[in-house]
Amino acid sequence: MPGQRLTGKRALVTAAGQGIGRASALAMAAAGAKVFATDINAETLSTIRDANHENIEIFELDARSDDSVAAGIAQANPDILFNCAGFVHHGTVLDATDDEWDFAFDLNVKSMWRTIRAALPGMVERRSGSIINMSSACSSVIGAPNRFIYGTTKAAVIGLTKSVAVDYVATGVRCNCICPGTVESPSWHDRVDALGKQLGSKEEALKQFVSRQPMGRVATAEEIAALVVYLASDESAFTTGHPHIIDGGWSGQ
Ligand SMILES: NC(=O)c1ccc[n+]([C@@H]2O[C@H](COP(=O)([O-])OP(=O)(O)OC[C@H]3O[C@@H](n4cnc5c(N)ncnc54)[C@H](O)[C@@H]3O)[C@@H](O)[C@H]2O)c1
């Protein structure tokens, strides 16, 4: 029954100000969890208040800062940790810069190490926890054009997930990751606009993004949030250590 799947659970979400993180925070709250929705962007985060959900508390958390993560995890003491923060760099191996590489590995991968090492001891003590990491279909699952740094970091997320899962499988703590195809979100719209400028037409850019999705459309953030709720809930109690692909058939061809 809606409202009961996550009753009694506390969930912390990074990057909940917009996109998949926001949709997942709202979906988990609707499923009964007490949700701590966090982001570095206080302005977008505050729009979650408009949803006026009594189960949602918001606060700023910078996933790139050890201190910010430690304080946030101490406040939330989560049973469910959804590591959603990430950034998409454009370009090939020859376009990439050292700074982009370091930034991406810090935000897309090391941030998960930060949150997990802070949240895991409490989960182990309670012998219950679900960690959900944001990977991508563009990772070790599939190569996408001009996603050298991004795909490399998201493949690392799969390795990180498996490692945590295997080390803690007997403690009641599960760790999975999700691998979406293209999802409509504010940053995706920015990427469409940027490609549109290169191609001289936003329509052409949209066509390129949509054409790689065999269903002829991109996903909604809510479709990804439904998988997050499943992995957060006890319905997935026998599932750990896996990348869960939700890509509209992109990698299944
Ligand atoms: N949109 C897609 O097509 C798609 C596909 C697969 C995977 N993903 C992954 O999903 C995640 C969310 O992407 P999206 O497109 O839904 O959202 P988005 O890119 O539009 O929003 C990202 C959010 O991350 C926040 N953020 C940035 N730096 C942060 C930091 N240091 N600490 C905390 N928050 C920070 C931003 O403020 C913003 O609210 C990312 O990890 C992304 O790689 C997205």
UniProtKB/TrEMBL annotation:
For this UniProt record, give its keywords in alphabetical order, as a comma-separated list: NAD, Oxidoreductase
PROSITE patterns for this protein: ADH_SHORT
**Source organism superkingdom:** Bacteria
**Protein name (Swiss-Prot/TrEMBL):** SDR family oxidoreductase
- Pfam family name, one: adh_short_C2
User: Which family does the record assign?
Assistant: Belongs to the short-chain dehydrogenases/reductases (SDR) family.
Q: Name one GO molecular function term.
A: oxidoreductase activity
Q: Which InterPro entries does this entry report, sorted A to Z?
A: Sc_DH/Rdtase_CS (IPR020904), SDR_DHRS6-like (IPR051122), SDR_fam (IPR002347)
